[in-house]
Design a protein that fits this description.
By secondary structure, this protein is α+β, with helices and mostly antiparallel strands. It is about 15% helix and about 45% strand. The protein has a seven-stranded antiparallel β-sheet with strand order 1-2-3-4-5-6-7, covered by helices on one side. Strand 3 and strand 4 form a beta hairpin. The longest helix is centred in the first third of the chain and has 12 residues. The two termini are about 25 Å apart.
Length: about 120
């Protein structure tokens, strides 16, 4: 199942006409039931997406223990960030949330790679 997630990421990036470079690293536990996936994508306008995902296979389910998808412009200013750091307890999707460019924080769920690239 972790391999399915990795395949989704790679298949989303590979045909994309807006991604000019990518660097993805994958680290697995000895049982292959846990993984840390991180990387950076650079886009044609020199903006970039930095991401980190800690994922665990539990039965037939993937559990995203920690994640961060941070999209920044070419001057390194935040455009948006999805994460599940345990703050913003008042948000109904706690701990999942999205930081916006204006500094506000809104509800969100774990975003899939195709959704993120579509948003970008």
């Amino acid at each position: 199942m972790i391999s399915t997630l990795i395949k989704e990421i790679e298949e989303t990036i590979s045909p994309s006409s807006i991604v000019v470079s990518s660097n993805i690293q994958k680290f697995f536990s000895s049982t292959k039931k846990k993984a840390y996936i991180r990387g950076t994508l650079t886009f044609i306008d020199l903006s970039s997406l930095e991401f980190a995902i800690y994922v665990v296979e539990k039965g037939k389910k993937l559990v995203f223990d920690k994640y961060r998808f941070q999209y920044i412009d070419s001057r390194k200013r935040l455009i948006f960030r999805y994460d599940n750091a345990p703050h913003y307890k008042g948000i109904s999707t706690f701990p999942n949330h999205k930081h916006l460019q204006d500094g506000s924080v809104i509800e969100s769920t774990f975003p899939r790679f195709p959704e993120i690239l579509e948003e970008i």
